[in-house]
Amino acid sequence: MSLHNRSSVENEMSMIFPVHRWCWSKMTMSPLFYFLCDRDIYQIHTHIIRRGYEQDHFLISQFLSIFANVSPSNLSYPTSVFNSIFCPNIYLWNILMKAHCESYSLGECFSLFGRMGRESNVCPDKYTFPSLIKACSNGLTLREGKIVHGLTVRSGTEGDMFVGSSLIDFYGKCKEFECARKVFNRMSWRNEASWTALMVGYLNSGYVEVAQCLFDEMPKRNESTWNAMIKGLVKMGDMENARKLFDTMPVRNEVSFTKLIDGYAKAGDMAAARFNEVLCR
What is the pTM of this model? Predict the structure, then answer.
């Protein structure tokens, strides 16, 4: 949808609801962001300023999120938009933090985190830390990850499911299973992501039996859990148990079939691979 068409729609709606024009413009501008492409995203920001919404936290948060998705390699512009906000709230900080952690170096992520502590009156929450922890996981930076872990303990967010699962995944990738277990055991509430993160950590290091025990102990499993276990068995060349697990899955998706087919193909069993490919269709 072009900017001209969006403007035409807005004018038509304003004629229908003239009394609430100001309210309609603000509330409908956010969904329109999802129609944006790289070439007109700058124009829509100009439109926001002209409407007088440049300090609206909700609208700017939507704009920053979409900008980061449309142009993840160019965060200088959304950062400048963020810098123009008076007293940005925690939601705005978290959006910018997430975007930086997905696209920038770990040093720049920590720099933004430090700025958050110096320049704002908000405290990092359970949505702030997972982005930083994921950045540490991607770089396998154990020292920095432990620093973030310590901050989660001080802030009281370590036991949160999102934070805890991120920490478990981080320690699993760094092969620090004792630390991963401690985080897991201290969590007051665990979901499928928490269990799966611990299980995957063991699988990736070849501890299939330990992972299988965790799989059997899980109170509830989702498709990601089943697929991760199948992937681990396939990786170890145990196609017999991978197939047994596949056959007992309550719901299978494309990932389930793909992992099994790839396993048979790598094992040289092309007949089984073709048979499962037909089933997948």
Answer: 0.80
